[in-house]
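Quick look at the format.
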Amino acid sequence: MEKSCVLYDRVSTGINGFDKTIDMLRLGDNVVWQVDSVDNYRHFVNHYIKQARLDKRKIVYMRFGCHISLIDDTYGIRVYDLNADEGFESFGTKVHDIITEEGLETFYVFDCLSELLRYWHSDLMIGNFFKITCPYLYELNTVAYFAIMRNTHTYSTIARIRETTQVLLDLYQIKNEYYVHPLKVWERYSPTMFIPHRSKNGEFSAVTSSSDLAALFVNTSIQEERKDYWDRIFDDARDTLFLSIKEQEEAKNLLISLLIGRGRRITTLSNKYFTLSDLINIHARQIGTGFIGGKSVGMLLARKVLETDGGDRFTKILEQHDSFYLGSDIFYTYIVQNRLWKLRTKQKKMSGYFKYASEMRQKILNGKFPEIIREKFQQMLEYFGQSPIIVRSSSLLEDNFGNAFAGKYESVFCVNQGTPQQRYEEFAKAVRIVYASTLSDDALAYRLKRGLFDRDEQMALLVQRVSGDYHGDYFFPHIAGVGNSSNIYVWDKSMDVEAGMLRLVFGMGTRAVDRIMGDYPRLVSLDNPEQTPLVYYDDEAKFSQSRVDVLCLKDNVLTDRALEDIMELDIGTNKEMFVKKDYKTIKRMKELGIKNRNAYILGFKELLSNSEFPSDMKAMLSVLSEKYDYPVDIEFTANFTQDGDYKINLVQCRPLQTKGLGNAVEMPELLDPSDCLFNFTGNFMGGNVRLPIDYAVIVDSKSYIELPQSEKYTVARHIGAINSALKDSQVMLIGPGRWGTTTPSLGVPVSFAELCNMSIICEVAYNLGGLMPELSFGSHFFQDLVESDIFYAAIFDGYENVIYNPEYLTNTENHLEHIISPNESIDGVIHIAKIDGLEIYSDIVSQRVICK
């Protein structure tokens, strides 16, 4: 039966009659057997292995299944024991690396692919694995044997395998005889090749008789499409609702592992608060398979905590949600569908981590979704109709204990106007943008700094109906914001750290989480809501919110409008809860001949002093923090009726990253005001510290202001280079206005990745250029500072009781050229000082900060 056969690219199966049936194998062939039992597959594998040994082939066995070994004698065969439980990406990458290492013309045996359902629970992912593995094996002129169990996988999965493989065979055992029915044999043909063949005494003969064929297939029919294995698991779980408590708990634990993940603290909370019915209902609103991701879990879990432990107080004021969840497996499917897996594998290596990111990002933005996913997207959009929606990142690592990923991935509003096709295109583009954001410089730098660069980062998505209502041509909620249950970055020593705080805006919440040009959200200390931060503001109107983010229905975009224009609309409730007339500005406009024009100051005075809203938010944060046993950070919106009643929409909840206050620090005496770099009260974040400083990097305010705009970006890139060069030192960064702004006229436009290695960041007020710091409590920038353990101070130079002596640094040698190679065009703008013994001290109780 076996013979030595090495004829050009022709390869023997080890069974002479079968070789004749399919005109032998070819180098490059992937051979897939559809079987009723692993034993049947094993029979043909051992003939193939015996022949490969005779032909002196290099043989590799990929072992990952729970079934018995497919090979009787593994002597001389390289066996790889793989762990599919690590997840699709880790498993797929490991297999790819092995194939690369083994090289050309290797002969492979893979365990039965259906075994992967034990670990991934998804037919979709098995199809994805085959789509990334088979073409690479073909490239390297290998021959590989695979098997799948009959009547186990969806027809769409079988179709993907059939489309990709070179040889697909149906194998039956009937009355101790084997029947092989070739379904696909690429680039080979004979008049009887694609009919069943009977194996008898080592020979294969075609079954051509109509009566024999009818007898063979009489009990076989074309069935309706089978459900994905994933959906069958949830169907089975639904059946256990009528069974014992023990069986329901077992089903619940399985569903938590499939939808939520395996992070111990989150799964413990999920197990405590989610019922089996809750999890089944989540699946009912899921598109695709896989985890729903950290942001979705956080939102759902927080709502469940408040419903369960908050009593009637929260159920009557919480706005309901009808969100959808795009499973994390869709992300991988998209990568595979668009033939990006090999590029992703290169980018995941440290050598290609940043090198291939831009190319990968661009190709993600230009990809297409499989038809089956497109249809699901259309159905969801039909459900939402023309209501505005938001597509939010919900990655596996996001919003978890230890890693918030605040602002690292995109969220995209879909105003959702136009024809069904236009609305689909807008939504699909939004999904691609969020997927591509996994490869942004900030996200990559964040993962690298947090030791996560080699972790699977699957991107699930949360699709939410935008909270708010139509007001003329615009759609927006009345208020939105961020809430922190623990306010350790206090701005006044009388404040209660445990009372929590809000960062509150009118309209869309984008202004609450980002640092916006010329706008200041209202910071609310929940122990004394009417108290304002201790900052030297001369003009209340100047340092409040002046523009409102809205969805423009007519233009189908997220945009902003002047507060005065929005307040001219009927907003469906009492405007005086949020604004008061700015009589000083109105008077000045009249003097200038501008009539019939109102001006407002957005201070939320009535809302914060004469409503239950602050106490409800304080109680909500307190309950969540207590049940999480950890400080929390939430995002919310609220909408009001004409009577002043309101509904709060809790759209996000995550563990708040904090350092704690730290031990009390003995502050140094300051006998001479000139004997320090700075000394002031308040306006810092980071608790009690005493930090030695190796280098101080200062951007001169006057020189920076005088640069043309293009050179201001050059300064930003130089700061990024310094950030990399001094990553192993304690560095203080000082500059005018706001670090990380997108507007060079407001500060230095660095990305967070360009300052992430700094130990201390200072923002300096420079009145001549209109550059002002912003104490960004609650913003994504704030979260970045906390997670990266960066101390922050705002220096209001020229204000009462503020000492700032920049010459303390600039009179020393400039080490800039010793550290990087600067452009001549920014000469005199950046100074790097190295002063032995320089330290920064801060004390929460006295609210003092000194650097000397």
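Next, a different chain entirely:
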Amino acid sequence: MAEIEATTGGTLALALPFLAAAIAPIAKRFLGAHAAWLLALAPALAFAILFTFLPTVADGGVVQFGYDWIPAFDVRFSFRIDGLASTFGLLITGIGTLIVLYSGGYLKGHRDQGRFFSFILMFMGSMLGLVLADDLMTLFVYWELTSITSFLLIGFDHDRERARRGAIQALAITGGGGLALLAGFILIRELAGLNSMSEVLAAGDALRSSPAYTAIFVLVICGAFTKSAQMPFHVWLPNAMEAPTPVSAYLHSATMVKAGVYLLLRMQPALGETVLWTTVLPIFGAVTLVMGALLAVRATDIKITLAYTTVSSLGLLVMLIGVGTEAALIGAVLYLIAHSLFKGGLFMVAGSVDHGAHTRELDRLGGLARYMPITFTAALLCALSMGGITPFVGFLAKEEIYHALEHPDAWHVFLIAAAILGNALMFAAAFIVALKPFVGRLPETIHHPHEGGLTIWLGPLVLGVAGLVGALFSETYHHFFSGPMASSAIGAPAGIEISWVPHLNLAFALSLATIGLGILIYLASNAIRAATGRTLAAIGWGPDLGFDQAMRGLLRVSFIATRRLQSGRLDYYMTVTIAVITAGLLVPMIFAGALPSEPKVPELRFYEWIVLALILVGIVAVVIAKNRLTAIVSLGIQGFATALIFMLLGAPDLSFTQFMVETLSVVILALVMTRLRLSPADHRPWRETLPDAALATAGGAGFGLFLLSITQRPFDPVLSDFFERYSYAIAHGHNIVNVIIVDFRGVDTMGEIAVVMTTGLAVLALIRIRVGRRDRAPADPTETTP
């Protein structure tokens, strides 16, 4: 397998969508509606760059490029283009080009069209990085970027509550799955020592034989299932239809929802062929397939219908990946490509109908074919492919799916029954969308229906024609697209020979049965819709309602926890903080047997004993002080004594700094305390002060023991030697301590100065508030100041 480096071209392809996103608002301001043509050049050029890699990928080669990111943790910003990544990348950039143009016409005149262009292009770059990423951490970063940018796109019309809810729901579900995926990747890195997809695929049975396989499997499929809307995580996808139609056509048919499917296809050679894999994935996929298709027939909004068919299609893909045979994976690859083409086109058709007739409700539509002939043609092309009619790529996929499942055992009979029922329901849904709005009489409620402009009908027509051309030239299609993609998913060269010409076999018979059943469902769609609606109403509860209940429960728990933990009492906060720190210091040392050995008392000079005595005197003075001012002054004794120790040990600069800090601290605290009651220092009874004294003693013991354990370790001079060697050579300073503070730790020092400045401003504000209240005389002698 040939491997080539393509650093410049690959990096440019990844960067182009983000660069276009950066200039999108400016382009929209100066070019208006024509900005879409300029911005579409970015994904088009990225498509052209990826297209140049096709010969290498088609011959089984791999294109790799990347940069070191965090070498200390073996994290690289690395990318890998094989058959799977190449086809996904071409779908993302190719359909993305059409979506940008479509957005220019669909959102023409929208005040925030420039912002929309930025969001959609950022998502495009994130999705492209996801499918090309090789390093696991790089893949996760792009994975989360798709969640964030999809949140922005779904909630684009943020003035509407339903749009905000859909965005939050999508982010919560896919973001939670993303955290699970991160945990899975960390297990793969730490337990198996595999940092990239290249290493994972080259490791053979390393993950399957790992004791952590079950945990890795569960975490990875949680990430995949939430992203690809498998039941019961499917609810976010229909609610995401609150986004503008270009978002639905791109994110929720061709790209984002396929990220989980991509991950499963990518990991199949490493995680597949186990009992868990071949049981869990087919079951969840089959249930999602049938239920999603049934809900699609029930819906009356065109976009909701298409959304549920997307859920159903994703279930079919997951089911096939779970079966895991070569024929099943080939079927999954063929269907994935076909679905991206026909579903992206149908979503754009939905937007075109909404744009031209001002409604998407099926029972309010009809007779649009004579007014919107191009849209009707595109809808028919896409629906024929979705229905699995030859000569369209959907037919190739359906034949291969049935061929993969035609086994006589009960398990495969169950799966093929689910496939037939799901495909028949989706067949009906496809023609409900493609025929009902266009045939029959035009309702009186629709006024002046019209065909959209070039940018609106171009996308669905191109995708519909692509589904036809791919099947007619199936040999070329398999050589450059489906074949390399299937080979990457299988982990071995895959030969795909299916064409648009039907063969009289069991698979074709099952395909005819699916079409016949689909026609019956189409004719009975109104009755099925009513029966399904009554059933769901009788059931009542569902995952969507469950999400709302879970969010309300989370808010309630957060409120209770916050009310308990954030009581508003400073003494409570200090007690909890010190207790946690003390436990963090003492518990590990005690249970790990890491307590320091008894230290030897060094021989001290008489003046050093005097300094230690001063520290003890200061401690006693603070404890027995009768008022707060005396306690504050006594508190400074310890600081000044510490400064004397620095001076005696030959560090006058540190000593001077300590003197200044202690002086300022005492002065500031004293000034503050003059605005408060100075006595008594502590009026609480002993039963309340003893626990605090015990905690303070434990804290002091914890820090003391921790410092003793550190000083008893062998001294490592690496840092000392480094600073001694480079302080003058790099920073041109002989005082090593000053060089460390100002140069090597310059940012930290700046942060510390900012903290001190902020504290000073806060103290000043408190003093001014207190003075202002005291100086305000009451207007009426009977009034009192607060």
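Residues 272-523 form one domain.

See the schema section for token definitions.
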